[in-house]
Specification:
75% helix; 516 residues; single chain; globular; disordered C terminus
Length: 516
């Protein structure tokens, strides 16, 4: 097997992660498109709004179960094998969906595919967070969130392209394409590495050192390699004083790592992702345009496809600013924009005129742009960045479980809510989006530019409930690649000296970082 190193290894890690999240986005956009086809609805038995919501949302229950599976044994098998197993499950679920002939079969198949996606959405963000360099980790994670939206756009255009088929290929072909994304992901999996933090935590220090060397494209005895491993081991040594972690420890604050606080903090952006109302539009935009704004089926699918294409384009600007202004301000600005758009949409839908329908459609487009330029990229990176290594897999599983359970509720209630209160449904999402602003300000810590071990030390050294009120926790640390090399080189000779790395950083003798 070819052993990739340096930028080639980082590229294949991003490719595997990207294909996984491309599939995730594709699944989000899939049912909104195929529900517009008469053939698919006939196969399902022409379901009511409640049953339509259930068959769409049951996938999210599967995803939540996948997160539970990751909680139970994901840490044991590691990040790489978790991704492989997850994609095998997705292929099985997608194959059964493609062959469906009844509502019940589709429900069961959606749950199976969801289990695979839920499992992978725990493992993939951890894989990326534990392997990408700290100085531009946020920018590189934007690639992941951008591909989610490209997946949504591909699903929408493909469903539109198949709309005019007179056979069941109208919906079977778009569903079968899930197999393609997972199959490609499995083809690249042999070339990725296990993460050095997982290897070090499980006592495989020599393997961890070699993986760090591969990621940095240096030899195993390079001072930077030794320094990075020493920093990881320093935190592992601090955590090991508390003994073997238990499941209940994830939900406890009676320890130095403050697990419960950090689990809740990591759940925050996941919950924001769903309770912003984004999947009201991702899953049902074409459905809303046709049934509530009275566009034709063809025009609804065209508008939805254009909206998702624009959504994908606007997912890339955070690459240039997320590490500069930080995660906190990115979420605050995004939440303010989302709240304003939702309020305007709700106001426009108080009238049934064509002009108001056009304005509501325009602000639906703008809402998705605001969401993808802030809440989305942060939500899929922040949880893994803020969790302690000791319980990272379990804590991440809890966050992902909350994400998918919330997704289920939102997707399930949307057809019911629109059917009963119509445009007033959007006032709810506007109020919730506005609430994200003070929550982020008071409770969020800034992770931009910090290594995962530096994030740990914020909670070790200066713990408090409202972490965002501490100026040190709000600072955006700007490291260059050179600063990072100097920092790790300073740690190279500290083998086995517990706490020495933290002491060096407190004295400010490492690197030439800029804080803003």
């Amino acid at each position: 097997m070819v052993e990739l190193r340096g930028s080639a290894l980082i590229a294949v890690i991003l490719t595997v992660s990207g294909l996984d999240f491309l599939l995730f986005g594709y699944d989000q956009g899939l049912f909104g498109g195929i529900l517009a086809g008469d053939g698919f609805n006939e196969m399902l038995g022409n379901p009511s709004p409640t049953l339509t919501g259930l068959v769409t949302a049951i996938y999210d229950i599967g995803c939540a179960l996948g997160a539970v599976a990751a909680f139970l044994f994901g840490e044991r098998i590691g990040r790489k094998r978790s991704i492989i197993l997850a994609n095998i499950i997705v292929i099985v679920g997608a194959a059964v969906q493609t062959a469906c002939y009844s509502y019940g079969q589709m429900i069961a198949a959606r749950i199976i595919a969801g289990i695979g996606v839920g499992f992978s959405t725990v493992a993939v963000p951890i894989l990326q967070t534990e392997t990408l360099p700290a100085h531009n980790r946020g920018a590189m994670l934007v690639v992941q969130s951008g591909l989610i939206i490209i997946g949504v756009a591909i699903a929408s255009w493909l469903c539109f392209g198949c709309l005019y088929s007179d056979t069941s290929m109208q919906w079977r072909f778009p569903i079968a394409c899930q197999i393609l994304f997972s199959g490609l992901c499995l083809c690249f999996c042999p070339f990725i590495c296990e993460t050095p933090r997982w290897l070090a935590k499980h006592g495989r220090h020599d393997e961890a050192r070699h993986v760090i060397a591969r990621l940095l494209n240096k030899n195993d005895n390079d001072p930077e390699v030794k320094g990075q491993l020493n920093e990881i081991l320093d935190v592992i040594n601090t955590e090991s004083e508390m003994g073997e972690p238990t499941w209940s420890e994830v939900f406890s604050n009676n320890n130095k790592t403050r697990n419960l606080q950090r689990v809740l903090l990591g759940m925050g952006p996941f919950m924001m992702n769903q309770w912003s109302g984004i999947n009201v539009l991702c899953y049902y935009l074409a459905y809303i345009l046709e049934n509530y704004l009275h566009f034709t089926t063809e025009m609804s699918l065209i508008l939805a496809s254009v909206a998702f294409t624009q959504y994908a384009i606007f997912s890339w600007p955070p690459f240039f600013y997320m590490d500069r202004i930080g995660r906190r301000w990115t979420v605050i600005f995004s939440s303010a924009g989302c709240a304003a758009c939702m309020f305007i949409i709700a106001g426009c839908l108080l009238s049934t005129s064509y002009a108001c329908a056009a304005a509501a459609t325009a602000f639906m487009f703008l809402y998705m742009d605001c969401f993808t330029m802030g809440i989305l990229p942060v939500s899929w990176s922040y949880a893994a960045e803020t969790q302690p290594l000791r319980v990272r897999n379990k804590a991440m599983s809890v966050g992902v479980f909350s994400h998918w359970l919330s997704n289920f509720v939102v997707v399930m209630v949307t057809p019911i809510g629109l059917d009963n209160i119509r445009g007033n449904f959007f006032w709810i999402w506007g109020i919730i989006c506005f609430c994200f602003i003070p929550l982020t300000w008071f409770f969020g810590v800034e992770t931009s530019g910090r290594t995962l071990e530096q994030v740990d030390r914020m909670f070790f050294d200066e713990p408090r409930i409202c972490m965002g009120l501490n100026p040190n926790h709000r600072q955006v640390v700007k490291y260059s690649r050179e600063d990072e090399e100097n920092r790790y080189a300073a740690f190279a000779d500290l083998d086995g000296k517990r706490g020495s790395i933290a002491e060096i950083e407190r004295r400010g003798s490492v690197g030439s970082s800029e804080k803003v």
